[in-house]
Amino acid sequence: MIKLIAAVGKNGELGKDNGLMWSLPGDMKFFRSTTSGSTVIMGRKTYESIGRPLPKRRNIVISRNPELKIDGAEVVYSLGDAIKLCEGDAYIIGGASVYKESLPFADEIILTEIDESYDGADVFFPDFDKSLYKKETLAQGCDGETSYTHVKYSRIHNAQVDILPYTKDRIGDVAAFEKELRSQENFYFWDIDDSYISAVEKSFDDPRFNNSVSLLAYKDGVVVGRIDASLITTRFDGTISAYLDWICVLKSCRHEGVAQLLLAGLRSALKEMGVATLIALMANNDEAQKFYRSIDNAKIGDEGIRIEI
Ligand SMILES: NC(=O)c1ccc[n+]([C@@H]2O[C@H](COP(=O)([O-])OP(=O)(O)OC[C@H]3O[C@@H](n4cnc5c(N)ncnc54)[C@H](OP(=O)(O)O)[C@@H]3O)[C@@H](O)[C@H]2O)c1
């Protein structure tokens, strides 16, 4: 199991000038007892800031420097190599760059959430979508005037959700999804009647839809969400971008990571098509805003979001 462990200030502060910004012996004790007997994986800078291999743990240090040798630690050249070496629990212990890269693989994130803000931090824990995790408070602690909480975020697994392309033989499944959607939501447009079904059937043979990408999220054999995008090729330099037409998940299946799985599926489909950027307008409701703000490699403008594929 891959676990991230970090101590963070109120604004996600991790450190400054390759060091920590606090001295919390109680938290160090918690870190030691949590990671003892396991493997710890860290970036080269974090290793240097600690200054020695951590005792009673297998130490793996990631660096791009092929010359680097460390007594008492294994040096590898990528995060993937580090993870391949691990058996049992592996704790990613920082720093910022390694946390960011390993976040998609994290089964658990153990944070010491310090009840203070720190000015001048130059590294921060990456933003992550808390709706994908179950939060559990492990313990409260206090060192001098500084109080903190040890919190565990465990990833909610969605093994039962499959992302599949919207093909003609799935129109019936989508019609059932659309009907359910209309019964769960207040908005209302085209009725799911014979004319709707026949128009959708025809669209699969219509060349105007060749530039559309549609994916479906199936849970227990039923469609619970869909995502649709259109490709846009510019005459200026021939680059292809995509515009996100729609992403929607049944209310009953929200907060289960389905939207994130749909977006990840769309990203990999677009990557294969040579698309560099996905552009979307952002709906002005809290839920949609939260979702868009959790997307990595994305820039938010006034009302739109530009997601690098
Ligand atoms: N609050 C906490 O819990 C906590 C925990 C840990 C660290 N920190 C703080 O975080 C800061 C250090 O974080 P950081 O982001 O600057 O550095 P870092 O992640 O510790 O180390 C970065 C270095 O790791 C190597 N590296 C990273 N990703 C790699 C990859 N994919 N492939 C190969 N090598 C890779 C590179 O080493 P080379 O340059 O050798 O190629 C890179 O320069 C310090 O301030 C430290 O105190 C805080």
Low-confidence stretches: none
Sheet having the most strands: 8 strands, mixed
Task: Tell me what portion of residues adopts beta-strand conformation.
Answer: 25-35%
Tell me the structural class. alpha/beta
Helices and strands, with pairings:
Elements: E1 2-8, E2 13-15, H1 25-35, E3 39-43, H2 44-50, E4 58-62, E5 74-76, H3 79-85, E6 90-92, H4 96-102, E7 108-114, E8 123-124, E9 133-143, E10 146-155, E11 161-165, H5 171-184, H6 194-203, E12 212-219, E13 222-233, E14 240-249, H7 258-272, E15 277-281, H8 286-293, E16 298-300, E17 304-308
Parallel strand pairs: 1-6, 1-7, 3-4, 3-6, 4-5, 14-15
Antiparallel strand pairs: 2-8, 7-10, 9-10, 11-12, 12-13, 13-14, 15-17, 16-17
NADP nicotinamide-adenine-dinucleotide phosphate (NAP) binds at residues 6-7, 14-15, 18-20, 42-46, 49, 62-65, 77-79, 93-98, 101, 123.
Would you give an account of this structure?
- The chain is α/β, with parallel strands linked by helices and 309 residues long.
- The protein has two domains: 2-155, 3-Layer(aba) Sandwich (Dihydrofolate Reductase, subunit A); 161-308, Aminopeptidase.
- It is 26% helix and 34% strand.
- The protein is built from eight helices and 17 strands.
- The chain has helices spanning 25-35, 44-50, 79-85, 96-102, 171-184, 194-203, 258-272, 286-293, and strands spanning 2-8, 13-15, 39-43, 58-62, 74-76, 90-92, 108-114, 123-124, 133-143, 146-155, 161-165, 212-219, 222-233, 240-249, 277-281, 298-300, 304-308.
- The strands form three sheets. It has an eight-stranded mixed β-sheet with strand order 5-4-3-6-1-7-10-9. A seven-stranded mixed β-sheet has the order 11-12-13-14-15-17-16, with helices on both faces. A two-stranded antiparallel sheet has the order 2-8.
- A hairpin with a 6-residue loop joins strand 13 and strand 14 (240-249).
- The longest helix has 15 residues, at 258-272.
- It is elongated.
- It starts with a strand and ends with a strand.
- The chain binds NADP nicotinamide-adenine-dinucleotide phosphate.
- The site of NADP nicotinamide-adenine-dinucleotide phosphate has 28 residues, from strand 1, strand 2, strand 3, helix 2 and helix 4.
